[in-house]
Write a structure and sequence with these properties.
The complex is a heterodimer of chains A (253) and B (267).
Chain A: E1 3-12, E2 17-26, H1 32-42, E3 62-65, E4 68-71, E5 86-89, E6 96-98, E7 101-102, H2 105-113, H3 132-142, H4 149-153, H5 155-158, H6 170-180, H7 190-196, H8 208-212, H9 219-236, H10 238-247
Parallel strand pairs in A: 1-5
Antiparallel strand pairs in A: 1-2, 3-4, 3-5, 6-7
Helix pairs in contact in A: 3-6, 6-9, 7-9
Chain B: H1 25-47, E1 52-53, E2 56-57, E3 84-85, E4 88-89, H2 92-105, H3 108-117, H4 148-168, H5 182-199, H6 202-210, H7 219-232, H8 235-257
Antiparallel strand pairs in B: 1-2, 3-4
The chains are: A alpha+beta (253), B mainly alpha (267).
The structure holds iron/sulfur cluster (2 copies) and FE2/S2 (inorganic) cluster (FES) (2 copies).
């Protein structure tokens, strides 16, 4: 059954812009990305929108729908009451390029700043074997589709542009956690770097990243808090520190 | 200069948030419950009375270490004499409550709860916060949140003591064993909730196995970690249940001690 939908779509560029009202038909089972495409085809031919898979797997169609960071291709039109107007804006933590398209290159820069996996000396490709229980832990983090909704919603940078230089963001905390929990990773100062260079201490564990993650990765509970505890081990816990000096304990640094 | 969602290169939108749901409800509930608890706990701490009715002792006053404690209420003796400041006797509860307070203030869940609801940092997801500057937990005083594990250890000691109180409550007022009253069950429930709260703590999860980078070579710790992880998933629930549990246990003992309730004995 078709229904008439009232939309407010943000249109503009980095210097100016605003919300524009449009009405559009929506068919049963459609998602917000479908109706945006219909608007583009019928009423606003030059509307800029980024998308790719329409299956919640490429992470391109991130935007804010009624103020919430979401994937447009995974947001059912039927989830809004019939008479409710739907407001669609670009991500509000990143510079806008045009209409619904933002410049997310901040995230690529941060990705490059994370030190890569360091294998044990002399280990050849194909040699490592990993037990399933160890793989499972990082598999959760590997589900990430790089939609950057978590980065967009994190108040540390969303509300404070000046923090961008010193904060990697939740998407990269799961990357750091994945590597720090890897049985074969030989880089030993990941924890210190997480705190001193990537801004782990800026996170106040208010869990918005977890709330918006379309892959349901438990970013705060399984990556950020465990990393915070690991940082305490090496930086803030005098007893642990003493123990590591006396026993040169593996796994601490 | 405008920052955050109003920064110069971001989409020009004048609203702090375009959320249409009742995002303010959750912080409002959190503030109301926590404030009620604080008011009640302060009243009880300063009341300095009605905390003991053989064999029941209120969790706010246990272990009662001051010589001013009610007769028979000091499980660990009274090593500290009487605390007096400016001639006023200090309630023994004030010295006890510092520790559970520190434990809960540094708890990862409560941090989330009060940063959001009391400090609006952020008030809710994708709702712009009112602060011009933000440094998170990187400097004093919030860097002290990293001491959570020490409060966790102290919390374990309290759990043991309050469990002992619950066991001692399976006696009658004449101190004979083998009796059970509503009060015994109240104290037992309180101790159970506190253990669940501690067992589900993130620090507990880290200590028991989370800090390992190699589960496969530590099968027992891995098993323990999976159990704690399952509890950890419910940490928020245990945080609230145990908080209300403590308040209720204290309230019950207060009513019995003041004579408002009779502690019903099943046998
Ligand atoms: S939990 Fe931390 S990283 Fe995640 S959104 Fe909140 S402040 Fe940002
Ligand atoms: S962690 Fe989740 S929200 Fe963040 S980029 Fe990956 S999939 Fe998106
Ligand atoms: S279009 Fe690929 S995630 Fe939405
Ligand atoms: S995290 Fe809540 S008690 Fe430790």
């Amino acid at each position: 059954m078709a229904r008439k939908l009232k939309l407010r779509i943000w249109r503009g560029n980095s210097t100016d812009g605003g919300l524009q009202n449009v009405e559009v038909e929506a068919n049963e089972g459609e998602v917000v990305l479908d109706v945006i495409h219909r608007v583009q085809a019928e009423q606003m031919n030059d509307l800029a929108v980024r998308w790719n898979c329409k299956a919640g797997k490429c992470g391109s169609c991130s935007m804010e729908i009624n103020g919430k960071p979401r994937l447009a291709c995974m947001t059912q039109v039927a989830s809004f009451p019939d008479d409710q107007e739907i407001t669609i804006t670009p991500l509000r933590a990143f510079p806008v390029i045009k209409d619904l398209v933002t410049d997310v290159s901040f995230n690529y820069k941060k990705a490059m700043e994370i030190p890569a996996f360091v294998p044990p000396v002399g280990m050849k490709p194909g040699e490592p074997r990993m037990a399933q229980v160890d793989v499972e832990r990082s598999q959760e983090f590997r589900k990430c589709i790089e939609c950057f909704l978590c980065q967009d919603t994190c108040h540390v940078i969303r509300d404070h542009e000046e923090n961008k230089k010193s904060f990697a963001g939740p998407r990269f905390f799961i990357r750091i956690a994945e590597l720090d929990m890897h049985p074969l990773d030989m880089l030993r100062n990941r924890k210190q770097k997480a705190q001193e260079e990537h801004g782990l201490g800026m996170c106040n564990i208010t869990k918005c990243c977890t709330e918006v993650c379309p892959e349901h990765i438990r970013i705060t509970d399984n990556a950020i808090i465990p990393m915070k505890e690991r940082v305490v081990d090496v930086k803030y816990d005098p007893l642990r520190w003493l123990g590591s000096v006396i026993r040169k304990r593996e796994g601490i640094l | 200069m405008a920052t955050g969602v109003f920064s110069s290169k971001r989409a020009k939108i004048s609203e702090r948030t375009l959320r249409t749901d009742r995002w303010w409800l959750q912080p409002l509930i959190t503030v109301s419950v926590l404030l009620s608890f604080i008011v009640y706990a302060s009243f009880r701490a300063f009341e300095n009375g009605n905390y003991f009715a053989e064999p029941l002792i209120s969790p706010f006053y246990s272990p009662c270490l001051s010589a001013a404690c009610a007769q028979g209420s000091s499980l660990l003796g009274q090593p500290f004499g009487i605390f007096k400041i400016l001639g006023m006797t200090f309630s023994p509860a004030l010295f006890i409550l510092i520790f559970p307070l520190g434990f809960r203030m540094t708890c990862y869940y409560y941090r989330k709860a009060y940063y959001r609801s009391f400090w609006a940092s952020p008030p809710a997801c994708a709702v712009a916060e009112p602060h011009a500057k933000y440094t998170g937990e990187t400097r004093a005083p919030l860097i002290m949140q990293n001491s959570h594990r020490y409060f966790f250890y102290i919390g374990l000691i309290f759990n043991v003591l309050l469990t002992a109180d619950a066991i001692l409550a399976f006696r009658n007022p004449e101190k004979q064993w083998g009796h059970m009253s509503v009060g015994s069950l109240v104290l037992l429930a309180n101790a159970t909730f506190l253990w669940l709260y501690s067992a589900s703590c993130h620090t507990c999860r880290h200590t028991i196995g989370g800090r390992l980078r190699n589960f496969s070579s530590h099968p027992i710790r891995y098993k323990a970690w999976t159990i704690v992880s399952a509890l950890n998933h419910k940490h928020q629930n245990f945080a609230w249940i145990s908080l209300l549990g403590v308040a209720f246990a204290d309230f019950y003992v207060r009513q019995v001690s003041s004579g408002a309730f009779t502690n019903f004995y099943f046998f």
